[in-house]
Amino acid sequence: MRRLHLGLCWMCLGLFASCAGSKATNKDSCPIGSETCACTTGGSCDPGLECLSNICVNPNPNHGGGGSGAGNTSSTTTTTGTGGSQNCHPEGCQAIDVVFALDGSGSMMEEISALSASQAFTQITGVLAGVNCGNIQYRIGVTDDNDGGWMQVGGAPWFDSQQMTQSEIASAFAAAAAQVAAGSGTDPGCEHVLTSAKNLLVNDATGFLRPDAILVLVFVTDVDDYGAYDQLNGNSCGIGCTTPPPPLNTLYDALLALKGNDPKGLATVVVAGDPNVANGVNFCGQPGSCGCNGLDCGVFHADRLFSFAGMLTGSNGYFGNLCSGAASVPTDVQAAFANNINLACQTYIPPN
To answer: What sign results for the dihedral spanned by CA atoms 233, 236, 242, 243?
Structure first.
């Protein structure tokens, strides 16, 4: 997003050496989502912890870390291992299709690097494979914020756990994410991770989507999806994108149709700027969640993305605030898979 404002730096060169502000991070000594620390904005915690009264606690203090099942315990079996006890729903999903839609702006390089680090992403796939007590078949695809299609690696448009090891998938994801970071071809203010993912899936001919798999969309961005403040009439500078944002209901209906109109088959993980946190505005009046210094903001409000996540059923929508810092991105994704997506998988009954 900041490349939009970098083009306007001539307005303030007499006062500032550079318009590129850095994202604000949580300076608290108690990391969000950690044990005895505050829960994330979406009410989630690190794997193995539960959010009670907005504090992350360990419900099984005699066990180690790992995901803890939640929700209705009828028709379940219970397993106990290194990750503690977990409810299993044999009738729930056994397959998950994951699309990562990443913002390739120059201001997102630190977050993309943190997410695609080998150890961090291998941990993410480990949690994903263990959803609903394990044996999950998963696919992971990567796209950008500007209708760039699948970021292919070695000719493969996406990566299948039935054909690749976790380490191979982690390496492929890093290569795909690097393609997003190298692209940066989005017109200023026109970043649109949600719309880009929808367009890709609706027109996909690669066979990525499986009828028995829950579809999980992961959005990581420091702006909104065609944010209102990025429209020409949405800021005091009269700058921004000339492409109007599609209505959220239109995007939701199109994605839901891909899952046979079953709301339980669609889930999302949003790591972006929390619109409920007002940290000020930049010099064009565009609102930020953190890093606002009177000139620019580090992370801007993601109103549409947070609203979209709120439209999903049950635990299927997860919110994470990008202002927690780059290192929190893989942690947020891992926590979402261990908690929200785990429960969503348990409650989704695939069609026969």
So the answer is: negative
